Amino acid sequence: MRTIIWLAVAPGVFVLENQPDNQFVRVSHSADETRTLASRLAALLTPGDLICLYGELGAGKTTFIQGLASGLGVSDPVTSPSFTLIHEHRGDVLLYHLDLYRLNPEELLEAGIEEALRSDSVVAVEWAERLPRGLRSGALDIEIACVEDRAESRRLSFRASGKHSADVIRDFESTLDADSRT
Amino acid sequence: MLTLGIETSCDETAAAVVRGPGEAGVELLSSVVASQDDLHAHFGGIVPEVASRRHIEMIMPVVGEALQRAQAEWDDLSAIAVTVGPGLIGSLVVGVAAAKGLAIARGLPLVGVHHLEGHIYSAAIDSTLTFPSVVLIASGGHSHLVLMREHGEYEVLGRTLDDAPGEAFDKGARLLGLPYPGGPALAELADSSAGRVDPLPRARLPGSLDFSFSGVKTALARLVKEQELDAEGRARAAAAYQESIALSLAERAIEAAEESGYLPIVAVGGVACNRRLRALLAAKAEEAGLPVIFPDTKLCTDNGAMVAAAGAHKFGHAGADSLDLDCAANLQLRSWPRAEQD
Predict the structure, then answer these.
(1) Within this chain, do residues B109 and B164 fall inside the same structural domain, yes or no?
(2) Within a domain: residue B96?
(3) pTM listed for this prediction
(4) pLDDT at B340 (0 to 100)
(5) How far are the Cα atoms of A74, A172, B132, B155 from residue A142, in angstroms, in the given order?
(6) Do A79 and B161 touch (CB under 8 A)?
(7) pLDDT digits over B160-179, tens only?
(8) Does B56 contact A at CB distance below 8 Å?
């Protein structure tokens, strides 16, 4: 459905999606910096927000969610749910940490993943490209990529796919800009 | 005394019957794991790897098969033990609901078991745990170092800060182009590499007994990306990767055992099947003069027997749980309440 609408108004959407307030890029120079960045984002999130993470093995998706969790007031350790699929953390709000790494689309449905995409929680999904597009609408997409020749550095691309997440992204960019000025 | 154990915390639908505990530990009478056993006749097809909802279809046939193989009747049972967490909530619910239903229908006591305590008690099957001891739990989803002073008394000394070792094995296999699940395949490739093995750089966390495996995974990812590895190169990379994971686990386990007063080490969980880890840990333990105990490799991966074994011990020490027993996706390992103190 979303694709059809997108095609129908493609020129307009294209311009919209290239607007700087719908997406921006930051480079992090260490895992700690990535965690700090993520914890700043956490402060802007509310229950119902969906964070989709993309990036290769070892890119730092779990690291990002560790920062997100600490920013949401989660005190228990945040580890990778690649095997366990879904981790639930109780902080100031409920955080669902999903990892679709080892699931194919059929298994995804068998595992009942859609039930974890809840409106009463912040939901962060690793390997989100495996999530059917319809379940990703309105998400805040974060792609993490390694930087050539810099073992510790990562390029983080933030991109909004809905009005609410566009608002979040704008606030987030302002927050980071303010941080860098102080 | 016979105990039925039910495990549905993740992928496996499993049930088992044990007798005891007696002087030689808990005796294994039967153990059925849906994905491993030839139960196709019951289900008319192949059992998918991840299928929480399939637990519903499989749970009763698996329980029935476990009783039949143990040549046990319902009246022979003294308790029903079930994993209550941590795990996938949709999967846990199936096992707990089945256990409760059976407990009510058959008038049997119900005992809730933590998944990790299940792994620990895999070492109490046809064997006995000695106390105090340090337990290394290394599996697909978990890695913990636990000090046990007595049955059901747990003190967590260390745990993973990111990936679990089994997961690290599987992701390493993926990086090396091996099919999923790649843990055993990576180990096989690693073992085929001849000559000296230099481990990849591994995380050092001074002053802590925690583990971290995400750094070594990233190191392997860079190695694979930056170098054109031939077959021998891939085998060497696999060996280096396996070595760093096994070394991290073995070194931390020895450190924990020494710091806790030179205690025996018990190594359990799916990764405790890994030959290199077994060899390294055994060698290092011998060097340090510490005994090390491994359960039968068949009992290392998720199964119902370990749950039955833990449940049988827990029932004896702490009594039964009430029928409003609940399961939880996130569940910390907690010591048993002592029956005599209630």
Answers:
(1) no
(2) yes
(3) 0.85
(4) 55
(5) 21, 13, 47, 38
(6) yes
(7) 999 999 989 988 998 999 87
(8) no
